[in-house]
């Protein structure tokens, strides 16, 4: 069957990764090409099951059954090399490519590689590689060397750096070339790629290079590490040396170029052998001896000593100690490099860079490291991205930490715009600029070097891309950076989070050319260029229809993305030939943002960047094209719009108007400007409104009236054009110097809202702003900015600052030493929760008891941000400040649920209570295999835990765990957790209703709490069908969603719905327990505390089979110790709630057994008992 590419995927026990891998191949853009030129398929996907013993084979079979171009093949386990060779027997493509079954292919990878391979008729095409794990994505160090040039077409004879590209799976290989040379992977060994890929590079007619990321190479976390990640195993060393010998043999027999032999041997020395030398630091001398013998034997037989003169100073020293078998010194150097290298005393000395180090490590007190520094990892950042009037301007810097750039002559830049599809490129103009303070980028070696002349601004003129077909599609900026004989060719990227958020998706329309800014998975800037269809310039409301005027240019829809509540939907516009416009009834527009698209998914383009407010009897429509010329629409029943705003001497003066429907004859009694904190679901008033006038009108006077504003110039807006059915004009004045306003504005962003009180009707709205606005107030340790945000609403940003003396190790170390000579305050208690991140959990509730009942005690709260609001009279102090160390030295009692920082040195008679932050479900501390990479790190952990005098526990079960995981041998406080006391004392209708009212939860509905654990960091996977729940349960219930904090991400927008309430950021989960009638969870420890209430608990374990591997790290068998039924589908959960009486009757006994085993010490007065024992010294 004629096929473009055969994709060979060997599989062995990768069930947790396999679906992501296969889906990434199926999602390749080339897989969806039209079949032309007699091709019958674009991709042939061959899944080779190498005798898997988990359910990987079943997963593979299911894909083969579902997709015609997916094939399943089975062989008894013979290893990766054999599986690849076996897969090649079934290949029918013009090209073959391999992929390891735990890795991922970016969507355009195969298309890019295939296009360039055809263009250059290349035997071999290689693509750039990035590494990733469950948390991060980063450049593969070894591949960065190989992809350091800019050539599209080359050969290893021209580009010897390709020796560093030895992996099999980032290569598109012409199958005829493969068969001509009879390539085969060696079988039964590791590192089977190397003896195949290095000869391929030499024998290929040419090599095409795709510099965009074509492969994501997984670094497995924790216990699921792959074989080649554990390089300290003796077989790994033997196999690596064996395959290196195979390459040596090939070179000796076939390669005549001396330069290639040189580069190959330098790669062995600097990379392949160095891997195992560096691993010696984790072994004792007996374990390492065999490995040292193997390395020295290989070097003696195969590598000319002259090559060791070409490596950097640190590498030379390692080999020197290796050759001398001076294991002690080698180990010291390796540990020094691992622990101290980037904080040691390294600085410029004349024309050299030197380390002022330990003579026992470096043989000298001043050790020159010029070459080591030059080979160091570069740092690149984008600092600004602006769409200016004539060009896109990108500012940033590239530095090699340790190589100073004090003057412009110290560095040399050149820039190119390159198209990712056709590789066309053109030089760009740039300017070198001086950098300000870049300490916040935390460059290696800290502040010891100057890089002030390393900045640049590069210009992408719009005229360059207007109507230029060479640059249609995706483009990147190549940065060529030269310094002190070192050259780097890289893509501009690594924008900080705030820079990226301000620039991503911004766009400009240049004639009929549309250019937008994006970022790829590697955080490299992308300039997307396309041809705009028609640019519209008139949108109005006529006869309760939204009308977009212009010629018919294809079918148009109002598109709403799928949410947890609503399915994806496309609402069609009708085209009105007579009036030359697209029309949509306003009833079809929702109170959530939708986007207007053509039927192929392209966005309609509005000619100008404008914000339009269109008023009608069916609500206020706000249409925005300010961001990217794309037309987005939202509808509001109640709408607040600023007509005037100003700032003078930190006093803010705001005039706003309310536009509202259906107020009838109600009169506005009051209006309050406030901000709202997710952390405690509380409102903080800023100012009361002066009601200037009631400009209510009849609906006929305002239908169809519109207000416009563009992104450059403000227009005066006549109040008559803004009248809604009921319109009020309000005036707010407040001064940002007012401590009452600022003291609870912690580091972050806050929407300003207006609460309107009409007596029997109270509601709140955000404040929309047509004009851009910004006002800054600077205080000593906080800056506050009031500004118009991306959603065109008024916001406050609070930004934490530091005094010059705070956060500096030398200063606070000396100060702490002095403070420890001060007397201890016998009635001072210091509290901290989650390393200062929160006011929460057991420390919070113990504090609140003490604050209320023992006011003679002074309570100190240690917080990362001293503006995080707390209840009561406690003193808030920022961690790492002088005040913090003062209180650390002088407090008598300490309460914490993790650990105070390592610099805390306990004094007599200080006492420390560890309250825990949950009932242990998953393994902790010393019970977690591999959690401490070195003996020293384990000893430091034990030392920190030894500072505790007491641990609060809920049961004997927790006591046993604490003795094991913390090596704790002191006193237990057997009173349960302070945080659960409120589950006893406030479990009544009055208190529950007060909490519900504060959170705007309807009093007449029961509450379902859904609190799943996290599976993948920053990824939200909701497997409950909220839409179905809403349809069947919303008459009687609402649902509260409480996500784990590790699931938060920029991609997850809080849900706004009258059935699902997203309270993930609410600090007190105990309040959520109290107001909930049913808990749905899975493998989360929330089940322990909730069981105190003796209310139904449902375990929704839809992935129990897949999660079984992770459950091995649990202390309990959840199937044997469950507090409620374990259900596996959303429908089962829904049915169980619909029949909650029967569910409750059938499973009530499980909760009783669960409580008796895991929380028998819980009581209503836990805080009182803990306090009494603490101060009495029991």
Automatic annotation (TrEMBL):
<feature type="domain" description="Glycosyltransferase 2-like">
    <location>
        <begin position="6"/>
        <end position="160"/>
    </location>
</feature>
<dbReference type="InterPro" id="IPR029044">
    <property type="entry name" value="Nucleotide-diphossugar_trans"/>
</dbReference>
<comment type="similarity">
    <text>Belongs to the CDP-glycerol glycerophosphotransferase family.</text>
</comment>
<dbReference type="InterPro" id="IPR001173">
    <property type="entry name" value="Glyco_trans_2-like"/>
</dbReference>
<dbReference type="Pfam" id="PF04464">
    <property type="entry name" value="Glyphos_transf"/>
</dbReference>
<dbReference type="GO" id="GO:0005886">
    <property type="term" value="C:plasma membrane"/>
</dbReference>
<keyword id="KW-0472">Membrane</keyword>
<keyword id="KW-0777">Teichoic acid biosynthesis</keyword>
<dbReference type="InterPro" id="IPR051612">
    <property type="entry name" value="Teichoic_Acid_Biosynth"/>
</dbReference>
<dbReference type="Pfam" id="PF00535">
    <property type="entry name" value="Glycos_transf_2"/>
</dbReference>
<protein>
    <submittedName>
        <fullName>Glycosyl transferase GT2 family/CDP-glycerol:poly(Glycerophosphate) glycerophosphotransferase</fullName>
    </submittedName>
</protein>
<dbReference type="GO" id="GO:0047355">
    <property type="term" value="F:CDP-glycerol glycerophosphotransferase activity"/>
</dbReference>
<keyword id="KW-0808">Transferase</keyword>
<dbReference type="InterPro" id="IPR043149">
    <property type="entry name" value="TagF_N"/>
</dbReference>
<dbReference type="InterPro" id="IPR007554">
    <property type="entry name" value="Glycerophosphate_synth"/>
</dbReference>
<dbReference type="InterPro" id="IPR043148">
    <property type="entry name" value="TagF_C"/>
</dbReference>
<keyword id="KW-1003">Cell membrane</keyword>
């Amino acid at each position: 069957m004629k096929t473009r590419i055969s994709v060979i995927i060997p599989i062995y026990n990768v069930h947790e990764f396999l679906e992501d891998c296969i889906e990434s191949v199926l999602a390749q853009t080339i897989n969806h090409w039209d079949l032309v030129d007699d091709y019958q398929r674009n991709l042939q996907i061959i899944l080779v099951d190498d005798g898997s013993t988990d359910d990987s084979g079943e997963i593979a079979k299911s894909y083969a059954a579902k997709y015609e171009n997916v094939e399943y093949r089975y062989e008894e386990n013979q290893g990766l090399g054999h599986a690849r060779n076996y897969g090649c027997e079934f290949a029918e493509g013009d090209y073959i490519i391999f992929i390891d079954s735990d890795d991922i292919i970016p969507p355009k990878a195969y298309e890019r590689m295939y296009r360039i391979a055809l263009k250059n008729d290349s035997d071999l095409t290689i693509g750039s590689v990035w590494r990733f794990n469950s948390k991060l994505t980063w450049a593969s160090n070894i591949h960065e060397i190989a992809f350091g040039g800019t050539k599209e077409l080359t050969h290893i004879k021209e580009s010897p750096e390709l020796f560093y590209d030895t992996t099999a799976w980032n290569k598109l290989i012409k199958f005829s070339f493969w068969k001509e040379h009879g390539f085969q992977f060696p079988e039964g060994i590791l590192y089977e790629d190397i003896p195949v890929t290095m000869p391929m590079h030499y024998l290929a007619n040419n090599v095409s290079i795709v510099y965009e990321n074509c492969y994501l190479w997984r670094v497995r976390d924790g216990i699921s590490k792959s074989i080649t990640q554990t390089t300290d195993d003796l077989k790994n060393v033997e196999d690596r040396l064996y395959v290196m010998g195979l390459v040596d043999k090939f070179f000796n027999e076939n390669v005549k170029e001396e330069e290639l032999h040189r580069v190959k041997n330098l790669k062995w020395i600097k990379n392949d052998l160095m891997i195992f030398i560096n691993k010696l630091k984790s072994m004792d001398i007996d374990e390492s001896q065999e490995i040292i013998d193997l390395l020295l034997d290989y070097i003696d037989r195969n590598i000319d000593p002259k090559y060791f003169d070409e490596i950097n100073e640190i590498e030379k020293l390692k080999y020197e100690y290796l050759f001398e078998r001076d294991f002690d010194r080698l180990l010291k150097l390796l540990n020094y490099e691992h622990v101290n290298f980037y904080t040691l005393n390294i600085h410029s000395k004349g024309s050299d860079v030197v380390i002022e180090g330990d003579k026992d490590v470096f043989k000298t007190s001043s050790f020159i490291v010029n070459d080591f520094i030059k080979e160091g990892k570069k740092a690149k950042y984008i600092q600004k991205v602006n769409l200016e009037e004539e060009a896109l301007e990108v500012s940033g810097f590239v530095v090699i930490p340790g190589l100073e750039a004090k003057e412009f002559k110290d560095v040399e830049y050149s820039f190119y715009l390159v198209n990712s599809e056709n590789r066309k490129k053109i030089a760009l103009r740039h300017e070198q600029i001086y950098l300000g303070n870049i300490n916040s980028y935390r460059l290696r070696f800290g502040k010891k070097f100057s890089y002030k002349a390393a900045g640049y601004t590069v210009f992408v003129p719009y005229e360059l891309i207007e109507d230029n077909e060479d640059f249609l599609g995706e483009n990147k900026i190549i940065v060529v950076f030269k310094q002190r004989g070192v050259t780097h060719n890289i893509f501009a990227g690594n924008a900080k989070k705030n820079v990226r958020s301000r620039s991503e998706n911004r766009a400009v329309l240049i004639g009929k050319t549309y250019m937008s800014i994006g970022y790829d998975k590697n955080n490299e800037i992308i300039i997307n260029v396309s041809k705009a269809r028609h640019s519209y310039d008139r949108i109005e409301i006529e006869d309760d229809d939204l009308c977009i005027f212009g010629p018919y240019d294809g079918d148009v829809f109002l598109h709403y993305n799928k949410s947890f509540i609503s399915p994806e939907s496309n609402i069609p516009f009708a085209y009105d030939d007579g009036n030359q416009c697209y029309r949509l009834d306003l009833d079809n527009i929702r109170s959530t943002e939708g986007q207007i698209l053509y039927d192929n998914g392209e966005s309609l383009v509005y000619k100008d960047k404008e914000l339009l407010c269109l008023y009608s009897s069916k609500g206020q429509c706000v249409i925005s094209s300010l961001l990217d010329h794309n037309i987005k629409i939202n509808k509001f029943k109640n709408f607040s719009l600023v007509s005037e705003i100003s700032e003078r001497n930190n006093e803010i003066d705001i005039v706003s108007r309310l536009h509202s429907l259906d107020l009838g004859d109600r009169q506005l009694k009051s209006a309050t400007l406030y901000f709202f904190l997710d952390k405690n679901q509380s409102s903080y008033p800023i100012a009361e409104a002066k009601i200037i006038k009631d400009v209510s009108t009849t609906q006929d006077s305002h239908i169809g009236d519109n207000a416009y504003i563009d992104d450059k110039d403000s227009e005066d807006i006549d109040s008559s054009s803004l009248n809604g059915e009921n319109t009020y004009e309000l005036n707010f004045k407040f001064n940002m110097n007012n401590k009452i306003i600022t003291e609870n504005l912690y580091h972050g962003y806050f929407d300003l809202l207006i609460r309107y009180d009409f007596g029997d009707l109270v509601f709140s709205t955000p404040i929309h702003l047509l004009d851009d606005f910004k006002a800054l107030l600077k205080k000593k340790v906080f800056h506050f900015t009031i500004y118009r945000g991306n959603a065109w609403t008024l916001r406050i940003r609070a930004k934490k600052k530091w005094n010059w003396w705070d956060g500096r190790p030398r200063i606070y170390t000396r100060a702490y030493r002095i403070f420890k000579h001060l007397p201890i305050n016998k009635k001072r208690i210091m509290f901290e929760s989650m390393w200062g991140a929160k006011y929460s959990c057991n420390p919070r509730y113990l504090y609140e008891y003490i604050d209320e009942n023992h006011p003679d005690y002074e309570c100190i709260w240690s917080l990362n941000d001293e503006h995080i609001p707390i209840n009561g009279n406690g003193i808030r102090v920022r961690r790492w400040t002088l005040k913090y160390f003062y209180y650390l030295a002088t407090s008598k009692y300490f309460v914490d649920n993790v650990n105070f920082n390592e610099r805390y040195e306990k004094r007599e008679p200080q006492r420390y209570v560890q309250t825990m932050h949950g009932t242990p479900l998953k393994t902790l501390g010393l019970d977690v295999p591999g959690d401490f990479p070195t003996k020293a790190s384990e000893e430091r952990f034990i030392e920190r835990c030894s500072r505790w005098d007491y641990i609060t526990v809920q049961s004997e079960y927790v006591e046993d765990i604490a003795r094991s995981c913390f090596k704790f041998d002191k006193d237990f406080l057997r009173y349960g957790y302070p945080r659960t006391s409120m589950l006893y004392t406030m479990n009544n209708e009055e208190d529950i209703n007060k909490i519900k009212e504060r959170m705007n939860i309807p009093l007449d509905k029961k509450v379902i709490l859904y609190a799943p654990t996290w599976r993948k960091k920053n990824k939200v996977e909701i497997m409950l069908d909220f839409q179905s729940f809403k349809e069947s349960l919303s008459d009687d219930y609402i649902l509260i969603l409480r996500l784990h904090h590790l699931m938060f991400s920029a991609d997850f927008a809080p849900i706004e719905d009258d059935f699902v309430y997203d309270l993930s950021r609410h600090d007190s989960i105990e309040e959520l327990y109290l107001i909930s009638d049913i808990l749905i969870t899975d493998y989360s420890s929330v089940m322990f505390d909730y069981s105190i209430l003796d209310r139904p608990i449902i375990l929704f374990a839809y992935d129990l089979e897949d999660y079984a591997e992770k459950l091995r790290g649990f202390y309990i068998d959840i199937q044997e110790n469950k507090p409620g039924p374990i259900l596996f589908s959303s429908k089962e959960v829904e049915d169980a709630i619909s029949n909650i009486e029967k569910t409750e009757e059938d499973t009530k006994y499980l909760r009783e057994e669960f409580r008796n085993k895991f929380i028998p010490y819980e009581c209503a007065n836990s805080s009182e008992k803990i306090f009494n024992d603490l101060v009495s010294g029991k």
